[in-house]
Every structure is written in C-alpha cells, then in structure tokens.
Amino acid sequence: MQIVVPIKQVPDTMVVRIDPETGTMVREGAPAITNPDDLHAVEAANQLKERYGGSITVLSMGPMQAEESLREALSLGADRAILLSGREFAGADTLATSYALSMAIRRIAEAAPVDLVICGRSALDGETGQVGPGLARRLQLTQLTYVKEILDVDQQARTITVIRETDRQRVTVRGRLPALLTVDHTSFPLHEAPLPEMIRAAKVPLEVWGGADVHADPQLLGLKGSPTVVHKSFAPPQPPGAQWLEGETDTLIEQLMELLAQKGVKIDG
Amino acid sequence: MNRCEVTVVGAGPAGVAAALVLARAGVDVIVLERGERPGTKNVMGGILYPTEFEKLLPDFPKGAPIERPITQERFWLMDESTVVDLGVTAAEWKQHPHGFSVLRAKFDPWFAQQAKAAGALIVPNTTVTELLQDENGKVIGVRTNRPDGDLYADVVVLADGVNSLLAEQIGLHPRWKPDQVAVGVIQLFTLPEEEINQRFGIKSDEGLEIAAYGGATGGLMGQAFLYTDKSALSVGLGVLLSDLMEAQITPYQLLDRFIQHPAIAPLLEGAQRREYMAHLMPEGGYDAVPKLYGDGVVVVGDAAMFVNPFTRQGMNQAVFSGRTAAEAILQARQLGEYDARALSEYGERMRNSFVLQDLRQFREALPYLEQHPAFLRELLPLLTHGAKDLLSADGRPIGRKIDQLMQQAFAKQGRLGLARDAYGLWRRVR
Ligand SMILES: Cc1cc2nc3c(=O)[nH]c(=O)nc-3n(C[C@H](O)[C@H](O)[C@H](O)COP(=O)(O)OP(=O)(O)OC[C@H]3O[C@@H](n4cnc5c(N)ncnc54)[C@H](O)[C@@H]3O)c2cc1C
Questions:
Q1: Would you put residue A62 in left (φ > 0), alpha (ψ -120 to 50) or beta?
Q2: CA quadruple A164, A165, A169, A170: dihedral, nearest 10
Q3: Residue B301 CA: which ligand 1 atom is closest?
Q4: Which has the least CB within 10 A, A112, A189, B314, B359?
Q5: What is the pLDDT of residues B393-427, one digit of tens each?
Q6: Phi and psi at residue A195, to the nearest 5°
Q7: Are B89 and B95 in contact (CB under 8 A)?
Q8: What pLDDT shows up at residue A61?
Q9: Global pTM?
Q10: Residues with beta carbon inside 6 Å of ligand 1?
C-alpha cells in the first residue's frame, strides 16, 4: 500500500502575534513547527503501514526550511520525503496549493499507484481546511474528512472503512480506494520516535522538486494561480480593561499577586 | 545497537565545527541537539568574529545570514549622567570586517547546514541524559531521552555549552560556583533599517557596537552592550552571578536601568521590544577550565569555559576548539586508539593557543579586580566625573579642578594605595 501525506510547516500560533493595526500575522521571530494536524496524519499512515505494510511518502511545499518538518515526519515512520520548493510556488492560495500538490502526487504515482492520501484537517496559519478536499477533487479520490478511526483496509476489494466524526454525528463509512482522508490532532496520538528512527530520518536524502519536475502549468502555480483576495482581516479586539504585565516571571508573579490582593481576591496557600 | 564513530553532544558553534571537520574527513559523525533545531536554545544575538569561520569555510561570510558588518567599536565609560566615549574605526574594516552581528536563531542552523552538507548527521529534539562508560571509566557512548536511546561511539565530543552537566558527571570538573559563571541577558528591539542608519550615522552595510562599563552595569564587574542588527538593536549585559546575588538585584533590573540611561534611551526611542533572553556564560577563567579530554571523550567550547575574558565572547573560541578537537580525533583515529593519551594532543594544542593564553593572562587580573573593588566602584566613577568636570566651563580654573580631583582620588584610597592598585593590575595583565 502506498500512502502519501502532504504536510506543512507553519509559524507556531501559540507564539505568533497579530499586528493590531494591519490585522496580519507577524510571522517574524515566530518559531516554525510542523502543523499539528499533519503530524497526526503521518501517525495514521504509520499505523496503517504497521498493519498492512507498504510505504509512506511525505510531501511538502515551502521554503527549504520545511526540510525540518519533513524529517520530523520521517522520524515518525515515513520512508521518503519530497519538498516542492522554488519561487514559482510562492504566494499560493489553497487552489494553487492543491494544484501543485496534486501534480506532485501524480508524479509519485507514476512509479507505483497511490492508494491513500492522508492530510491534516487544517493548517494553524490559514485554518481553511480546503487543501485536502481540493486534492480529492483534482485526483478523483474518495473523500473522507474528519476521520477518527480507520477500521479496515481491504486491499483485495479496494475499500477502506473509517469512523468519521463531526460536531453532530459519528458515522462508520466504507469507501472505495484510492481515497483521501483528513484527520486532526484529537485522533491518532503521536508516538515518541526512538533514536534509531531519528538517525534514519536524518539520513534519508531529501528530494527537492520544482514546478517543471511535476509538469505543472506555471500559470496555475503560486501567486499567478491564486485568485483568492483577502478582503479584510482583523484581530479580535482585546477585552476592555485588561491590564498587561510585562517583565520577568518572578516579578510578574509578585505584581500579579499584589494586583489580585488589591482587588480583594483571596488566594490560599 | 546504535553506533557511530563520533558522537557530538550539542549543535552550537563548537559541536558543529567539530562535526564539519570530521565529516569532511569521512568520519561517521552524529550530532545530538536537544533543541528543535540548532540555535533555538541559544541567546538570540551576538558579534561573530570571522577568523575561525573563514578557516573552515573559505568563502565565509558568503551565503551566511549575517545582519551587519561591524565597522565601528565604541567603548563607553558611564555614570548616571555622563559618558566618556572612545571609538575605534579602521578603513580596513570596510574591506574586511573584523566582526559581524548575527541572530543565532538564523546563523546556527545555517552553520549546521554546512556540516550536514559535508555528511554529518544532525539529530534534533534529542537530549543526552548521561554518558555511557565501561568498567574502567572509558566513555563509550551516550544515553538519550528517546526510546532505544543509547548511542555507542569511539569518541564523544562534549559541546553541550556552559554548565556542562555531562563533563561534571564524569568528573572532568567539579560543580561550578556562582563566581565562575556570569549571567548574560539580551533584549532585541526592532527598528526600521533606515532609522537605524540615521540614528547611528551609518550605511546599511555598516554597523556599530558599544561596549559600556562602570555605571552601565550598576558598578558591578561586567559589561553592557548595544549593537546594530539589520533592522533591530541588540542590547544586553553580562555580570557575575555571585555579584548579582550579593547586590540582590536581577539582571533584568540592571538591563532596564541601562536601557533608561539618558545616553541609551534616545537610541531606542520608538523601537519595539521583542524577545528577552537570559543565559549563563562561563566566567571562571583559566583555573576553572576543566580537564579537556579523557578516555573516549573531549570537551569543547563553552562546556570547557573557553571564552574571551575581555569581552565574554565565545563563538570564535568555540569554533577553534571544535576544529582542534576534531583534528586530534583524526590523529587518534589513525592510531586506532581513543584513550586519554591518544587525545592528549587536543589539550596540548589548546594550551598553546590564543584561547588558553588569553585566559591565563587574566588568571590573576580578574580575582585582583574582585579583591580591589575600588577600581570599579571609585576609580571609574572618578574618571567619568573628572572628564565632565574638566570640560565644564564653570568659572573654576583648570588647575584647581585637577587639584580637587586628585584630592578626591587620594582621599578614597591614599596616594600609595591607588598607585599600588594600578601597578598591581598592570603587572597582572601584562
Ligand atoms: C548574553 C550573551 C551574549 C553573548 N554574546 C556573544 C557575542 O557577541 N559573541 C560571541 O562570540 N559570543 C557571545 N556569547 C557567547 C556565545 O554564545 C558562546 O560562547 C557560544 O555559543 C559557545 O558555543 P558552544 O557551541 O560551545 O555552546 P552553545 O552555543 O551554548 O551550544 C551548546 C548546544 O548544546 C545543546 N545541548 C546542551 N546540553 C545538551 C544535551 N544534554 N543534549 C543535547 N544537546 C545539548 C544546546 O541546546 C546548545 O544548542 C554570548 C553569550 C551570552 C549569554
């Protein structure tokens, strides 16, 4: 069974700040992490590999720094890592992103057919959740979103059975392979990579592909292929009356305790 | 069983330099780094002297993420209101900069990439928890915090930075005392590039560093600094941990005072405060340098207390020691033996290098200064005050001002005491 997992490196939104004037994300200085949902997609693929055998290819589009995320995915069980990198890919919206990734997956499938594509549900930085479904449409894959559990893959009958869970319902669904699954960070808990896997991950050669390598139409890539226009973005206003304390932890704690005491809050212990 | 020829603990400049040299010689080398990537655990900025980097990478700094070349060095002697400023610029520095400001979070990963390109494996997110030893105490590998986490090696290079618990574990040095480590704090202020150029009278390919003494560190022994990045200013200071404890002041408070100084505040006006970080720096000087090698192990960089005693900078020393250790390991490899005797070449070459010679020179000066606090607490303030006094046209004749200054100086120390202190210090640095 051949599985492809598209992943993305994102700024850590726990650290990132929103510029209150422009409403845009201040990415500078924010540490880059692998999009959490995507790691769980790798984990789902790894569990399938352990059950049914096969191989996992992780695929990312982004600057060279995304190598870190690909290596993290390798340490969690992926066998091969491909990075789509180059100026032609820059500035892509979800439409152009799913196009570029779909072309790369077509190229991967030239060597051996792809049975499953597993994506994270959405990315921390965009939160659109559109790339997975976009890929399913472009590659004519059975689309199974919000997958909680994978019950069975029947390679003979070419079917997959999963439990999908949304806010309202929990349903067991059987679909035809090849399929595209999306999962989020609440399922497929991550295992800790053992040292030999970390060393293997550091060794696997990284394959870097440009637009021409995947026979992509340059007009459909990057900024050129991105019709999305951001009309307006804003940071949710800070609640009035909030007081911000800055400084070292110890002094902060002292200040905070004092403030609370002033306001008559009783603290035990 | 996981095995490699050389395991390096820590992907700072020292460990990466060692890995680069070893990988180039075809050695199977694995670097273990506890951070998500090299540099994440490092203080965010610094001035880097290119000499040692150039020896490893002839094109340096081509391709390296540097902020600005440093083309002006300024030394400030300060009290609460006054600054005595000595500046150094050299035409040569324009052609061949003697230093660069860098942000470590960008620079360290780049440097590590060079070692990777040479064939070293860099394994992030992995902490070495202890050294593995055989029954004779020879180091035979490391234990990490990962499942199946033991990694055996012919030699382990300890490049784990200041306060190396691993070197302590195998008895290469005793636990450090508070007067052997300094606390460094640094804060980044962002400001548009153009604004920095204008404020400091420099161009985009020029930069400056101010090293400030005296009141800059609240009279404590140490140094405060401010230097230009591309579109940010790095401001910080370093003082002895024991002095902080005695003065009952936090480094953050000291830095805040420096930032509010009338000579510094205008430079930072309108700038945005970004990250703040504190980190230890080795400060024990020559006598605190641990044993540099043992059976199957060498210690490099900050882990070996290798810093410049004047400036507390250590990247150059880290790279030099990493390279030197790697070269000694290559020699030992030819013999096929990695015991202390085979690795002793490393200790020998370090002893004859600028790194240890600089430290030795300061071996006596530092404690001397500490035992004669009058220098910092009285003489320096007198100098700043005196300079201001002499230059003020306040109706007093200059001769009388000098007399008064001399009287003040001698009142505090006595004519002889002062001369003795100055001579004593001079003899020890000489
Ligand atoms: C405030 C401040 C300002 C400074 N400014 C300058 C400057 O301007 N110029 C200059 O040259 N120097 C400066 N220095 C000193 C400089 O940072 C160090 O000398 C230099 O980083 C030493 O390099 P190193 O490789 O020995 O150690 P480090 O750079 O500290 O690297 C050690 C690495 O080991 C890793 N590590 C530690 N323990 C383990 C473990 N158990 N397992 C796995 N990994 C581990 C750490 O995460 C780290 O990445 C400054 C220091 C401070 C504190």
A1: left
A2: 60
A3: 26
A4: A189
A5: 888 888 888 888 778 777 766 656 666 666 666 66
A6: -55, -45
A7: no
A8: 97
A9: 0.87
A10: B 9-15, 32-35, 41-43, 46-48, 127-128, 159-161, 184, 186, 236, 238, 279, 281, 301-303, 307, 313-316, 318
Q: How far apart are the C-alpha atoms of B383 and B82, rounded to whole Å?
A: 10
Cis upstream peptide for B61 (omega within 30°): yes
**Cβ of B272 under 8 Å from any chain A Cβ?**
no
Q: CB distance from B1 to chain A under 8 Å? A: no
Question: What are the residues whose beta carbons fall under 8 Å from the beta carbon of B106, sequence distance 6 or more?
Answer: B39, B65
Which tokens belong to B357?
A: 């010679």
Q: Which of helix, strand or coil describes residue A176? A: strand
Would the pLDDT of B245 be above 80? Answer: yes
- Chosen for mutation from B40, B121, B234 (greatest number of chain A CBs closer than 10 Å) is B121
Which of the residues in chain A have pLDDT under 70? 14-30, 269
Mean pLDDT of B34-43: 80
User: Which one of A65, A192, A202 has the shortest CB-CB distance to B146?
Assistant: A192
User: What pLDDT, on a 0 to 100 scale, did the predictor assign at position B69?
Assistant: 95
Instruction: Nearest chain A residue to B44 by CA: give it.
Output: A29
Statement: residue B109 has pLDDT above 60: yes
d(CA B248, CA B218): 12
Q: Are A183 and A118 in contact (CB under 8 A)?
A: yes
Helices (H) and strands (E) in chain B, counts: 17, 18
- Taking the C-alpha atoms of A29, A34, A35 and A40 in order, what is their torsion angle to the nearest 10 degrees? -160
CA distance A237 to A245: 18
**Contact criterion met (CB < 8 Å) for B146 and A248:** no
- Site of tokens 């990315």: A123
Q: Is B164's pLDDT higher than 60?
A: yes
- Which of B8, B34, B350 for mutating ligand 1's site (highest number of atoms within 8 Å of CB)? B34
Q: Quick check: B387 pLDDT over 60?
A: yes
**Is residue B275 less than 8 Å (CB to CB) from chain A?**
yes
Q: Tell me, what DSSP letter sits at residue A87?
A: G
- Long-range Cβ pairs for the range A64-67 (8 Å, 24+): A64/A208, A65/A9, A65/A32, A65/B109, A66/A8, A66/A9, A67/A206
Strand order across the A142-144 sheet = A142-144, A179-183, A116-120, A2-7, A55-61, A80-84, A206-209
Nearest to B250 among A31, A68, A248 (CB): A248
| Per-residue confidence (pLDDT) for residue A23, from 0 to 100 | 61
Q: Which of A117-121, B114-118, B293-297, B392-396 shows the lowest per-residue confidence on average (mean pLDDT)?
A: B392-396
pLDDT of the residue at B412: 66
Tokens of B368: 């001397």
What pLDDT is recorded for position A24?
63
**Which residue's entry shows tokens 């703040």?**
B276
| B243 pLDDT above the threshold of 60 | yes
Q: Tokens at residue B67, please?
A: 């902020």
The dihedral sign for the CA sequence A192, A195, A196, A197 = positive
- Report the relative pairing of strands B83-89 and B72-78 from DSSP bridges: antiparallel
Length of chain B: 430
* Tens digit of each residue's pLDDT (9 = 90 or more) over B331-372: 999 999 999 999 999 999 999 999 998 888 877 666 666 676
Q: Is B2 on the interface with A (CB under 8 A)?
A: yes
